[in-house]
Amino acid sequence: MIAIKRVNCFHRDGYGAAGCNPSGSTYMVVFGLFQLLLSQLPSLHNIAWLSVVAVATSLGYSFISLGLCSAKWASHGGHVRGTLAGAAAVAGRADDDKQAAFNVLLALGNIAFSYTFADVLIEIQDTLRSPPAENRTMKRASAYGLAITTVFYLALGCTGYAAFGDHAPGNILTGFAFYEPFWLVDAANVCVVLHLVGAYQVFAQPIFARLESCVACRWPDAKLINATYYVRVPPCLLLLRTSSSSSPPPTLAVAPLKLVLRTIVIMFTTLVAMLVPFFNAVLGLIGALGFWPLSVYFPVSMHMARLNIRRGEIRWWMLQAMSFVCLLISVAASIGSVHDIVHNLKAAAPFNTAN
Question: Where are the domains of the chain?
Answer without folding.
Answer: 1-76+118-219+262-275, 277-355
